[in-house]
């Protein structure tokens, strides 16, 4: 038994580890489902999931077969009875009912405790120890240290021995946590002391010789060209000064912020921070499910005056006018109700609204003036640097130069700085105090949306007046102070109950496009976009027969199902036959004994005329032994065959679920939180894998054994059918009450589990922001409420189960008493029959209690099948392959790249509002088209239309072929897209570039070289087979974007769509991307969804969208000549100088085209 328990624990550990990997990978797939669909990668990811699932199933198979083996131990009691009776008979003893059935009852009692619960206990304890060990390993992982040196009166640190725990901002070894105000904190790494004797009051952030590495094993590999952190960084950021950190992609800018935040430990050097609070705006905006207002206020107390000021300076007033419910609009999962620019501005507003002494802004859209505050800005947008007091130039994880902007520019420390010299003088001359007070004039229209996507024109800088953080921090009336407990409750409520329309769960960010989600197009507008995720449906009533049918259909073998059913019947029939055979043997033995001791008065045998009267003792023994052999064979085959059947069903159900999810429409993902979907792949599939087979096995055994016992009792005394019927009615009534209650509780438990997944996933996604804002306790409290709600439902379920067991036991005791006393009223009853009936009904005490509980448990577990089948049968997209062979496109289609929209409209769901309306336009082959428009205009809805991600109405033709009649893969494989938010998956570089293995290594290396990633990949362990972290987190944002560009180069399609592919990269990388697109896609049709006007002014033509309609379409130079034109209005809103520059670019391009056409 000990060996079995150890083996079960080993299989369970393997299974748990592999399940974790599968669920993690499924989470990546759910988060990146739109990219997977657009790249037509469903089959590739299906193979990857199948591979992971097969390894998981290998562990599950071992666990189930061990359980099948343990079920065989149930036969030990029957073997024990057999050996006892045979031995007793062998030594010449005479069978009597008293002796035989006492032995039988004794071994049956041992069966319930020793042979049922003991193996179950062993496996449960072993699996519990595995779970505890895994939790222990997690809890023993290194944590953020919360020690801080106590400052002396003059600011010196007298010794590191004076480190102690403080209730404030705490930092040591480069790790920080934030709670309550503290005036000073210091970090010392590796015992290197840096004594700050004076002047610290002027310093906000001070770092000396700071070195930190993400991968400690890779520490010291900078010499090989690998940049895995920062090295030897010395930096001082004084209060009241704005510090900007610039540098190429992967230079360590964001890593430096992570060190200051305490997310990365210093390996060497010292860090000192003077702050009562730190505020942070990440590069990738993190929002939780709640109202826009609550996402801005977050953990702070609400102050209306301050809130309005922040909304104004962050250019959100115009957005609030566009949103259906203003700032009460619900931010759904993956930001389904907001555009990318809106999400970024809300993230910036949150950082500014927080009253902090240190502001860390990771490429947040703008520069910020400070007064008596510390602000560190990481940016790729160099036009902001002229407004910065201190510029830090980073490269390769080290600081190349730092100092005032003008000094660096004069010294030519960074070549790109020189290009800003002329612009700087002109812009500074035009800034005025009047412009500072009229920010709202800028945000009318595209300006806000452009800035939201990282355009060259600043949102709150340069042409737009800079704001002063201190101005927002002016004293204002505050609500009465609340005690800590009430403050926590207030903060919690603000996150949990943002509005009556909000769900409690936290959410992921998704893919944005500047005018709406790629998933839902014009997200910022009022039409077509769901403003909240749909509430999870709760199926009521009993689990229908259709669910059981779906489960057994998943086996995909009627022969196997039928065979297993026959094995159950034959095995139980053999067992019951043996029991009856023993009773008749006892009757015959007693009859022979009576005749031998009372030969003068011969007794007539009641077995006379039956086969039992003709058998000798030897024949009884041989028959008994043969029946036992048959029973053992049938029982073993029954157990292993049944668990094999369940395993097949589980595998097929998972495959059906995955197929159903990957084939679902994007509207399904926009209205269902990822936690809800992930719950099906984790908890529900786990129940089907592990718990359902055991519950179903117990139920089937209970029903066949119960039927056999009632049949045997009826054979002995048919009058006992009356109390049996009464017992059956009571059982049915109790079970009906229990199952109705337990089933509903189980469904509630499953529903309350989904928010736990969503909350945990979103918290992990925004962990850096949460820590920076000191929101750990509030988020933990929020998580506890989700967990408590789920635990309450689970506890209620357990309590109902125990109450049901108690009442079942009472009914069984009454039934046993009835059967026993009934034999006192009968005459001429054979003792063997009495013993048989009593021993059989005694089994009911354990069997009925356990069996009825398991029937209810089976129905509860079948709700998991019900939930899986529900998602496996969601409405799918159109077919992936073209059904009509006559319409199937040629292999080289499209060979020109012409696109034509004919009376085309689009909506995101059947019956939803139109978001594209009556488009009629034609794009010529090889044309470079820019698409612009205000927030919610429908720019990215065109992407939805081309990839058929929504409901298309009308006709789109590519090279004369109507795409509405094509299979989705036949269409999507022929289109290339570079999304704004790059999506990478865990796996290898090769799998992220070419998951189908269609390209050679040479092709992939060439593509990587063209995007200047060859060296970075070559230095990875394994090269093309080097491992990608989850979401490609071991690559910087810019590098991830370059990987997406390399994908497009490999696909080599005639149509390329760019959704502002350079929004998150530095100017040098931007030039690289633009050059690569011109060189590699010169003979392709290129559609650019523009959030920065300068990227489309040299286009062949520009399409201007407004309210879902194409309002202008022509060369930008011609469109700019129209006095009241839409494009001209958008260009003018960028400022006089920029408008002049954009017009010059358009005119130059127009003249070049005209010259080329004339020649």
Automatic annotation (TrEMBL):
The chain crosses the membrane at residues 64-86, 106-130, 621-647, 690-712, 804-826, 832-852. PROSITE patterns: ABC_TM1F (PS50929), ABC_TRANSPORTER_1 (PS00211), ABC_TRANSPORTER_2 (PS50893). Residues 1-114, 564-860 form the ABC transmembrane type-1 domain. Keywords: ATP-binding, Membrane, Nucleotide-binding, Repeat, Transmembrane, Transmembrane helix, Transport. One of its GO terms (molecular function) is ABC-type transporter activity. Residues 205-421, 899-1132 form the ABC transporter domain. Pfam families: ABC_membrane, ABC_tran. It comes from the Eukaryota. The keyword Nucleotide-binding applies. It is a multi-pass membrane protein. Its main location: membrane. It is found in: Membrane. GO terms for cellular component: membrane. This is Multidrug resistance protein 2.
């Amino acid at each position: 038994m000990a060996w079995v328990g150890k083996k079960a624990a080993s299989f369970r550990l393997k299974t748990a580890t592999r399940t974790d990997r599968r669920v993690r990978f499924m989470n990546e797939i759910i988060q990146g489902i739109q990219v997977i669909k657009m790249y037509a990668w469903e089959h590739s990811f299906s193979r990857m999931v199948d591979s992971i699932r097969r390894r998981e199933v290998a562990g599950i198979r071992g666990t189930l077969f061990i359980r099948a083996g343990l079920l065989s131990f149930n036969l030990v009691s029957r073997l024990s009875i057999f050996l006892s009776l045979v031995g007793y008979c062998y030594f010449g003893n005479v069978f009597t009912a008293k002796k035989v059935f006492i032995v039988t009852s004794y071994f049956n009692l041992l069966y319930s405790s020793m042979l049922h619960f003991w193996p179950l206990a062993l496996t449960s304890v072993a699996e519990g120890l595995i779970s505890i060990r895994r939790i222990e390993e997690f809890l023993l992982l290194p944590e953020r240290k919360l020690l801080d040196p106590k400052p002396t009166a003059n600011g010196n640190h007298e010794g590191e021995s004076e480190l102690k725990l403080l209730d404030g901002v705490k930092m040591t070894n480069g790790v920080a946590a934030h709670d309550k105000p503290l005036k000073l904190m210091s970090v010392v790494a590796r015992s290197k002391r840096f004594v700050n004797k004076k002047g610290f009051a002027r310093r906000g952030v001070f770092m000396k010789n700071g070195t930190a590495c993400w991968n400690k094993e890779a520490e010291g590999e900078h010499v090989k060209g690998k940049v895995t952190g920062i090295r030897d960084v010395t930096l001082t950021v004084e209060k009241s000064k704005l510090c900007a950190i610039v540098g190429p992609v992967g230079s360590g800018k964001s890593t430096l912020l992570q060190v200051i935040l305490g997310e990365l430990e210093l390996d060497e050097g010292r860090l000192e921070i003077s702050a009562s609070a730190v505020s942070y705006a990440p590069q990738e905006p993190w929002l939780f499910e709640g109202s826009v207002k609550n996402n801005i206020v977050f953990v702070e107390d609400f102050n209306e005056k301050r809130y309005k000021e922040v909304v104004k300076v962050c250019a959100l007033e115009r957005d609030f006018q566009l949103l259906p419910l203003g700032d009460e609009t619900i931010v759904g999962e993956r930001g389904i109700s907001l555009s990318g620019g809106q999400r970024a501005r809300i993230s910036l507003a949150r950082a500014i609204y927080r009253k902090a002494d240190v502001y860390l802004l990771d490429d947040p859209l703008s520069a910020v003036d400070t007064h008596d505050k510390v602000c560190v800005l990481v940016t790729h947008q160099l036009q902001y640097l002229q407004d910065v007091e201190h510029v830090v130039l980073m490269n390769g994880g080290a600081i190349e130069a730092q100092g005032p902007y003008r000094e660096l520019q004069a010294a030519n420390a960074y070549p790109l700085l020189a290009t800003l010299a002329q612009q700087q003088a002109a812009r500074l001359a035009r800034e005025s105090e009047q412009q500072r007070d009229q920010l709202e004039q800028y945000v009318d229209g595209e300006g806000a949306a452009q800035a939201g996507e990282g355009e060259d024109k600043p949102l709150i800088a340069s042409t737009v007046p800079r704001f002063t953080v201190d101005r927002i921090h002016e004293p204002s009336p505050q609500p009465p102070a609340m005690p800590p407990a009430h403050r926590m409750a207030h903060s919690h409520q603000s996150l949990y109950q943002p509005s009556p329309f909000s769900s409690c769960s936290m959410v992921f960010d998704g893919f944005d496009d500047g005018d709406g989600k790629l998933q839902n197009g014009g997200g910022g507008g009022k039409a077509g976009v769901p403003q909240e995720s749909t509430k999870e449906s709760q199926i009521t009533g009993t689990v229908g027969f259709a669910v059981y049918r779906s489960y057994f259909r998943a086996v995909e073998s009627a022969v196997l199902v039928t065979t297993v059913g026959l094995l159950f019947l034959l095995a139980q029939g053999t067992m019951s036959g043996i029991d009856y055979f023993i009773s008749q043997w006892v009757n015959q033995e007693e009859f022979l004994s009576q005749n031998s001791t009372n030969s003068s008065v011969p007794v007539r045998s009641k077995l006379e005329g039956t086969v039992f009267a003709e058998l000798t003792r030897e024949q009884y023994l041989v028959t008994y032994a043969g029946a036992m052999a048959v029973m053992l064979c049938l029982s073993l085959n029954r157990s292993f065959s049944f668990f094999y059947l369940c395993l097949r069903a589980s595998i097929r159900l998972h495959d059906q679920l995955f197929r159903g999810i990957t084939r679902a429409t994007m509207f399904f993902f926009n209205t269902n939180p990822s936690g809800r979907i992930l719950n099906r792949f984790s908890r529900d599939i786990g129940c089907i894998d592990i718990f359902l087979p055991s519950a179903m096995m117990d139920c089937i055994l209970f029903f066949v054994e119960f039927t056999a016992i009632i049949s045997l009792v009826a054979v002995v005394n048919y009058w006992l059918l009356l109390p049996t019927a009464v017992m059956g009615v009571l059982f049915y009534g109790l079970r009906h009450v229990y199952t109705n209650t337990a089933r509903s509780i189980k469904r509630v438990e499953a529903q309350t589990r989904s928010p736990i997944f969503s909350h945990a996933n979103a918290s992990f996604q925004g962990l850096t922001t949460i820590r920076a804002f000191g929101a750990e306790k509030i988020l933990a409290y929020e998580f506890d409420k989700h967990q408590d709600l789920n635990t309450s439902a689970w506890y209620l379920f357990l309590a109902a189960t125990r109450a049901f067991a108690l009442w079942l036991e009472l009914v069984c005791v009454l039934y046993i008493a009835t059967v026993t006393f009934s034999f006192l009223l009968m005459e001429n009853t054979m003792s063997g029959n009495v013993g048989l009936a009593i021993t059989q009904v005694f089994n009911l005490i354990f069997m009925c209690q356990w069996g009825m509980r398991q029937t209810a448990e089976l129905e509860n577990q079948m709700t998991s099948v019900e939930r899986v089948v529900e998602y496996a049968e969601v409405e799918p997209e159109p077919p992936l392959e073209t059904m009509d062979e006559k319409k199937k496109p040629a292999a080289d289609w499209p060979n020109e790249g012409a696109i034509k929209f004919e009376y085309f409209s689009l909506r995101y769901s059947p019956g939803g509002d139109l978001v594209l309306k009556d488009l009629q336009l034609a794009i010529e082959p090889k044309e470079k088209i820019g698409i612009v428009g205000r927030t919610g205009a429908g720019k990215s809805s065109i992407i939805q239309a081309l990839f058929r991600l929504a409901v298309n109405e009308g006709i789109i033709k590519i090279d004369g072929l109507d795409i509405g009649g094509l299979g989705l893969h036949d269409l999507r494989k022929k289109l290339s897209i570079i999304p704004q938010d790059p999506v990478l998956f865990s796996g290898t570089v090769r799998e992220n570039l070419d998951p189908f293995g269609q390209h050679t290594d040479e092709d992939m290396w060439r593509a990587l070289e063209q995007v200047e990633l060859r060296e970075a990949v070559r230095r990875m362990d394994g090269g093309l087979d080097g491992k990608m972290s989850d979401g490609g987190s071991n690559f910087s944002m810019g590098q991830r974007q370059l990987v997406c560009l390399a994908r497009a180069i490999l696909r080599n399609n005639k149509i390329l769509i760019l959704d502002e592919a350079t929004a998150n990269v530095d100017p040098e990388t931007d030039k690289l991307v633009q050059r690569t697109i011109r060189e590699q896609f010169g003979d392709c049709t290129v559609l650019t969804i523009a959030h920065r006007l300068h990227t489309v002014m040299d286009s062949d033509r520009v399409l201007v969208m407004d309210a879902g309609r194409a309002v202008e379409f022509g060369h930008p130079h011609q469109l700019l000549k129209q006095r009241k034109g839409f494009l001209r209005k958008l260009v003018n809103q960028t400022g006089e100088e920029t408008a002049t520059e954009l017009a010059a670019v358009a005119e130059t391009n127009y003249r070049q085209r005209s010259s080329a056409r004339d020649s």
